[in-house]
Design a protein that fits this description.
4 helices, about 180 residues, 2'-5' RNA ligase, about 30% strand, Cyclic Phosphodiesterase, Chain: A, alpha+beta, eight-stranded antiparallel β-sheet
Length: about 180
């Protein structure tokens, strides 16, 4: 069973991003019942959940809320069949992702290399199929938006299932920062 570590945003960020998600989902004929937008960090295969919980608590405990910057590039993952918006993978998110990955490998978790196919991204919709016209112009897909940053306020462990109530296994809220 695969478990996904994902970064999620605060309510204000979701409210500002929903119109962009709907517009892009309609443009690329994506699934309307897509999950909330998230940043996939790691995929761990068949972990001991108690041990994983203990390790992630140690890693995430000192981290505060932080922002990620969106770019105007759209990525389509053919392997995962998802529609993604590229984020600037510099700063806090990059450091947190590298720390989680290295620590989980140190504790002998079976971590799949998630970010090797492309840079870090914000997954916004699931695609049932990828149309040929999109594949042809894959390299020059962009969008325009006034939204530049989103605030990450928690990290969660997900188990993908058909029942939405069973998706979230554990949530790790980040510390509140007075300046953000």
């Amino acid at each position: 069973m695969k478990y996904y570590l994902v970064a999620l945003f605060d309510e204000d960020s979701y409210k500002n991003f929903i119109p962009i998600q709907k517009k892009l989902s309609k443009r690329f004929r994506a699934n309307r019942n897509s999950p909330v937008p998230y940043i996939p960090l790691e995929v761990v295969e068949n972990p001991n959940i108690e041990k994983l919980d203990e390790v992630l608590n140690k890693i995430i405990k000192p981290y505060k809320l932080f922002k990620v910057e969106l770019t105007n590039e759209i990525l389509i993952s053919e392997a995962r069949k998802t529609l993604n918006v590229k984020i600037s993978d510099i700063g806090y998110i990059k450091r947190l992702n590298r720390l989680i990955s290295d620590t989980l490998k140190l504790y002998n978790f079976n971590v799949l290399d998630l970010n090797s196919e492309s840079s870090m991204h914000l997954s916004i919709a699931n695609l049932n199929f990828i149309p040929k016209d999109i594949k042809k112009s894959y390299n020059d897909i962009t969008y325009k938006s006034d939204l530049e940053t989103l605030k990450v306020d928690r990290i969660e462990i997900w188990k993908i299932s058909n029942n939405k109530k069973e998706t979230v296994i554990k949530s790790y809220p980040l510390k509140r920062n007075l300046y953000i």
